[in-house]
């Protein structure tokens, strides 16, 4: 099936004129969110098949996806932010998402010798599919220097594969699909979303915010 080659990598920010973007907003992590810091990110993929697609059609399609990618970020400010791990006294730390609009990542790649049929007809997931996803094996806490959301659109012989890496501290699978649905709505020309996201975090009674937690010496080396 060949290999995957990256064509371009672009940092995409939410539109600066959008009123939904507050570059000073902080979203503190709940006890549930903190459990996911040391595990890997969420990865989901979308496979599209159009045998009649030619190279020019696919390029136009990818450029449209890239152009429309910034608009839904305006409604999901955490996804274009960065994770901050802050050190306090007594060897404790706290963690929050800083909605600074540092940007999400959009990757354009190509797998010239791979078709949709190659993927679907295989008894097992072909190894090349692993390369259709960005930031493989990255842990959630690494979002201090890595984007919280990365999308890779890979050209195949007969259409595209959209691989998404979504940081679990920014949301769960339901939140991920909400973003994808919102992106699809905007890509189709809708100016308003049918369902707006909510960013209300639940903290149990008696839990002070931000939550402080200890780090071991081994973990500190990773920060």
Protein described:
The chain is α+β, with helices and mostly antiparallel strands. The protein contains six helices and nine strands; from the N terminus they run E-E-H-E-H-H-E-E-E-H-E-E-H-E-H. The chain has helices spanning 31-34, 55-68, 70-73, 116-120, 173-187, 217-220, and strands at residues 5-12, 26-28, 42-47, 82-87, 92-98, 104-110, 149-156, 159-166, 213-214. The strands form two sheets. A five-stranded mixed sheet has the order 1-6-7-8-3, covered by helices on one side. Strands 2, 4, 5 and 9 form a four-stranded antiparallel sheet that branches.
Give the rounded overall mean pLDDT: 88
- SSE order, one letter for each helix or strand: EEHEHHEEEHEEHEH
Binned, the helix content reads 10-25%
Report strand %.
15-25%
Oligomeric assembly: single chain
User: Spatial order of the strands in the main sheet?
Assistant: 1-6-7-8-3
Going by helix content, strand content and strand pairing, the class is alpha+beta
Count of DSSP strands = 9
Overall 3D form: globular
Q: Which ranges are low-confidence, i.e. pLDDT below 50, for 5 or more consecutive residues?
A: none
- The termini sit apart by 38 Å
- Alpha plus pi helix count: 6
Estimated radius of gyration? 19 Å
Q: Main β-sheet: number of strands, strand sense, barrel status?
A: 5 strands, mixed
